[in-house]
Amino acid sequence: MCGIVGYIGKHEAAPIILEGLSKLEYRGYDSTGMAIFDGEKIRIKKSAGRLKVLEELTHGGATMPGVAGIGHTRWATHGVPSDVNAHPHYNEEETIAVVHNGIIENYIPLREKLMSKGYKFTSDTDTEVLAHLIDYYYKGNPLEAITKVMHRVQGSYALGIIFAEHPDQIFAVRKDSPLIVGQNEDGCFIASDVPAILKYTRKVYFIENQEVVRLRADHMHFYNVDEEELPKEPVTIDWDADAAEKGGYEHFMLKEMYEQPKTVTDTLMPRIKDNDIVIEELGMSDEEIRAIRKIFIVACGSAYHTGVTAKYIFEGAARIPVEVDVASEFRYRKPILEEGTMVIVISQSGETADTLAALRESQKLGHKVLGIVNVVGSSIAREADNVMYTWAGPEIAVATTKAYSAQLIALYLLAMKFGKVRGTLAEAEFGSMLEDLKRLPGQIERLLANKERIQRFANRYIGAKDVFFIGRGIDYAISMEGSLKLKEISYIHSEAYAAGELKHGTISLIEEGTLVAAVATQDSLFQKTLSNMVEVKARGAFVLAVTNEGNTDIEKAADYCIYLPKTNQWFTNSLAIIPLQLFGYYVAVGKGCDVDKPRNLAKSVTVE
Ligand code: AGP
């Protein structure tokens, strides 16, 4: 996600901001920029590309004199990576500049309103709306203008703001996206994350939601959204620089697992409006949706596993036949894509060679392709006919977690929308599913809180040789991802099996103490999976069961149970995968593996 740094104090701001932004590079970005008040006006320099480009553009900050400013590294969500879409953004008079991390959910109606009042926009970003909206409310009092904007804007934001008419102060504002402030004898600082200012101070203030901070060279004041001043105590950071990049977590993978409630929210909420699903970027009319006769879902690895899950939901909710294929197979099997076939490719990186090839093959056969992608401006995002972004932010760990969860959300929304438009999903069921979707972030948070229990269980399997994951229907898809998470970071052999398929061979591998993780979240298949658990237990297996709260019958056949909060049957992957991610992670940690960078693997497989 984006990085913000701000400074006001005794020293030149630009070099401090550039240094701070360099400490946030690990967060992933595609463009950078700075706004500095030079004594007369706010000057902005910004550019697509690496921070080095901005450093060269400003001669290390020397060409941007001034002691107050804000800077930004942008991870594109709305608007491709480009000079004009880079932050900071100005108002038209160039008297206000803003940098932003987050997603403004209602930026389209706000932009329309501002344009109707004569405002002109230069970028494709949601952030530029903020610059003009602050201008719209600004009558000389920055705090008043900022709090009015906070009342109007929906979504997540961490902001740095400067006003040319108030050069002795800079502002920080927060709702949902992280933001901290700090102070030392030379000035005051704003940052998205601790690493950016650790060099200057270890005493920081974590800004809470809906709070505004006014920073001057030698002091700060905190306010709530009603402009009432708030007391605030600093926190002393005792992390080293490396730990600080991971937000205090031991690995990026664990940090990203814990970001899943937010990435699910960020992918979900901007697409739910007035109890309906609105997917602006789908690029399909209701008529075109009704004309779909078949869907092909093509992807690799974990993205493929989300596709297997989606098959059940598209076929169940929208009654559209779905074929799911790994891209490396699809591209060579001369796929038969008949009239009315929609192709969906799924990719976190948007650069996976096989998936990109499958996209091109489908287009060559005359079919439009929808890309479900996390990286804005990536090859698949650029070449797909339409793109539905997952807004999970940059994923650093090779083993995907938060992007996987965001892909599931995108697919749920798509299948529900198709079902509603095609009249195969009843209004009442649609409404109940929307409520279940909104509960997922909190339920994921609850499951993540279980980490110590999972860690203790995982420690028992550090020496395991073979682990099997079994399930039926969507539970089989969950088993695939659980198995991949374990094997790709712990190097323990693991297989996912359709539970009903075990007795056709694989069950001969079950020995005394072999761990079998049975996923049983599908009520209609529960008894069947239960009997498969009994089968493997009879052959000596140790059975870990993952099932819904209330299914205590499972304790007849399971040695260890993990219960999930209740949700719609089609959404259980979003919950069941959490303990399985934690299990794979803690086994790998216990084995001393390089969790974030497993051997032989790359974050994006850009070659065949
Ligand atoms: C999953 O943890 C792996 N990193 C891998 O299977 C990954 O999902 C696959 O390579 C697809 O990558 P993509 O989503 O970037 O296309």
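^ 2-deoxy-2-amino glucitol-6-phosphate complex. The mean pLDDT is 95. The CA atoms of residues 100 and 159 lie 5 Å apart.
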